[in-house]
TrEMBL record:
Limits of the SIS domain: 33-207
Pfam families: SIS_2 (PF13580)
InterPro entries: SIS_dom (IPR001347), SIS_dom_sf (IPR046348), SIS_GmhA/DiaA_subfam (IPR050099)
Top-level division of the source organism's lineage: Bacteria
Organism of origin: Amycolatopsis decaplanina DSM 44594
Entry GO MF terms: carbohydrate derivative binding
Single GO biological process annotation from the record: carbohydrate derivative metabolic process
Transmembrane segments: none
UniProt cross-references to NCBIfam families, sorted A to Z: PRK02947.1 (NF002805)
Name the record gives this protein: SIS domain-containing protein
Lineage: Bacteria, Bacillati, Actinomycetota, Actinomycetes, Pseudonocardiales
Length: 242
């Protein structure tokens, strides 16, 4: 049996590995987001299944970017039907249906979270965004992509402008180490990588004199007032903010 201290050390090392292995990609991702902010454009974020947890982390969150447009289809959420959500992510053509409603343009950016990165929805979403001139950041796992059965013409990693590699093991589970069956880490590492990018965006913005639009907690003094200005700026362009 692994002690709590040993388990914590293992998870901490996985986070450190993700940070070390993505240092340059984190910087490049932050530069792309800074370009979006300069252009007064939007950062689209997308995922399916449990990767939607990462999308929720990017949207309307205290300390998060205000210029985020969450790409969402209810059939992709396991809470609306677990087995159906898996079938939906594997359905070719859904991404184009979603993009037909609202797609990122040349000044925008799409961030797609998908650990396996092989199902048609995330792959076709990235391809469709690139076809429309948008840059694409993939938050995925190269090891998981390599091991997963291919269900699309390409993979998310193939379609991305920048890849943030979570280094998550195939199957996502991390415990026990010699034969993992539980303790999935993708949600934790995805959030960690995104927050590293946000920190870099803030530092780059400060160095270049660019004000970064960040949400405040509505449960601190002045939070509602600060957020009201951001809602006025982005509310008409991001329907989910209404």
């Amino acid at each position: 049996m692994v002690s709590t201290t040993e388990r914590y050390a293992d998870v901490a090392e996985r986070l450190a590995e993700a940070e070390r292995g993505n240092a340059e990609q984190i910087r490049k991702s932050a530069e792309l987001i800074l370009e979006v902010i300069r252009a007064d454009a939007l950062v689209f974020t997308a995922g399916a299944g449990h990767s939607l947890a990462a999308v929720a982390e990017t949207f309307y969150r205290a300390g998060g970017l205000a210029c985020v447009y969450p790409v969402y289809h209810p059939e992709l959420l396991p809470l609306h039907g677990a087995q159906h959500s898996t079938k939906t992510e594997r359905r070719s053509g859904l991404a184009e249906e979603v993009l037909a409603e609202r797609a990122p343009g040349p000044d925008d950016l799409l961030v797609v979270f998908s650990t396996s990165g092989v199902n048609p929805y995330p792959v076709e979403l990235a391809a469709g965004a690139r076809k429309r001139g948008a840059s694409v950041i993939a938050v995925s796992s190269a090891a998981s992509v390599a091991a997963a059965p291919k269900r699309a013409a390409t993979t998310l990693i193939d379609e991305a402008s920048i890849v943030l590699d979570s280094h998550v093991r195939p199957g996502d589970s991390s415990y026990p180490p010699d034969a993992p069956r539980t303790a999935p880490l993708s949600t934790v590492i995805n959030a960690f990588l995104w927050n590293l990018v946000l920190a870099e965006v803030l530092d780059l913005g400060a160095a270049q004199g660019v004000d970064i639009p960040l949400w405040r907690s509505s449960n601190v003094d002045g939070g509602d007032e600060a957020n009201a200005a951001l809602l006025a700026k982005y509310g008409a362009r991001v329907p989910a903010l209404r």
